[in-house]
């Protein structure tokens, strides 16, 4: 509830500030000029939501709480979770030089070291995809899926009455030794071998549910699974990383960095990842292509 109140205060300020700015804009412009210039004005996400909420003839009526919920989703689900996944992936690659070497070899093979990896290469980067799945298995950005049952049902011999809120711990599922062999080992190859090669992140396989499942699955999954391969592929291709520990001391290459987590709505690292990027490739020829 404390977090909810703090978020609500932040969102209320963002919306109120934008409403005040919109009112001042209307006052400065006369009605005709405002209408003529409205189509040329660059609008952001919040402007569009406020336009819809102010349009009394709109088929879908947005309340203030609806707008706050959408903005909160935009903050947390659309940006924070992807950033957290990139951070965990880079940390795991630093701790596993063998995996990092294989990832670089794959990117080099696809790009021939003649250009930067791009979105067009996604389908040709199976090992990068396996790294992403393995990262999401060990470090799902959202640890709990919550659903409200609409019918009585029995799960594992326990009766779940209709109306019950059920929490599914996908963090624990990803580390369950009865489901995964050597679950604490970061081994992307598990998603390239045997039955593991058929496991996807779309919610079809209940042992890997980073985006949830069903109609209430994360709508940002397609965007995330297009962003992550390109971001991680580019970081792998272009840079070496000099890592620092939580006290700001340079970590010797080959010395694992800590992988502690901190609690929250998402699951970020307990200590932010601090590293110095060292260029591996000269980007100038790439930019000229």
Automatic annotation (TrEMBL):
Q: Which SUPFAM superfamilies match?
A: Cytochrome P450 (SSF48264)
Ordered alphabetically, the record's keywords are: Heme, Iron, Metal-binding, Monooxygenase, Oxidoreductase
Pfam families, from UniProt?
p450
Keyword set includes NADP: no
* Superkingdom of the organism of origin: Eukaryota
Question: Which InterPro entries does the record cross-reference, listed alphabetically?
Answer: Cyt_P450 (IPR001128), Cyt_P450_CS (IPR017972), Cyt_P450_E_grp-I (IPR002401), Cyt_P450_sf (IPR036396)
* Protein family membership: Belongs to the cytochrome P450 family.
Q: What is this protein called?
A: Uncharacterized protein
Species of origin reads Stylosanthes scabra
């Amino acid at each position: 509830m404390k977090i909810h109140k703090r978020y609500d205060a932040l969102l209320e300020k963002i919306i109120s500030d934008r409403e005040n700015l919109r009112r001042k804009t209307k006052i400065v412009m006369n009605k005709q000029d405002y209408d003529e210039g409205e189509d040329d004005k660059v609008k952001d996400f919040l402007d569009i939501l406020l336009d819809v909420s102010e349009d009394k003839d709109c088929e879908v009526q947005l309340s203030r709480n609806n707008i706050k919920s959408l903005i909160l989703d935009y903050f947390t689900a659309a940006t924070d979770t992807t950033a957290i996944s990139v951070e965990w992936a880079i940390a795991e690659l630093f701790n596993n030089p063998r995996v990092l070497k294989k990832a670089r070899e794959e990117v080099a093979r696809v790009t021939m070291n003649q250009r930067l990896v791009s979105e067009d290469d996604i389908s040709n980067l199976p090992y990068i995809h396996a790294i992403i799945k393995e990262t999401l298995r060990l470090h799902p950005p959202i640890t709990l899926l919550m659903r409200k049952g609409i019918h009585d049902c029995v799960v594992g011999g326990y009766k779940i009455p209709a109306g019950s809120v059920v929490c599914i711990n996908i963090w624990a599922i990803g580390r369950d030794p009865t489901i995964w062999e050597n679950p604490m080992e970061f081994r992307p190859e598990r998603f390239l071998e045997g039955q593991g090669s058929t496991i996807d992140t779309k919610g079809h396989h209940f042992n890997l549910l980073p985006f949830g499942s069903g109609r209430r699955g994360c709508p940002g999954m397609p965007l995330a699974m297009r962003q992550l391969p390109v971001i991680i592929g580019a970081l792998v291709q272009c840079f070496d990383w000099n890592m620092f520990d939580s006290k700001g001391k340079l970590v010797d290459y080959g010395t694992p960095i800590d992988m502690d987590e901190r609690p929250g709505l998402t699951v970020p690292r307990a200590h932010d990842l601090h590293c110095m990027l060292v260029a591996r490739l000269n980007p100038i020829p790439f930019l000229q292509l």
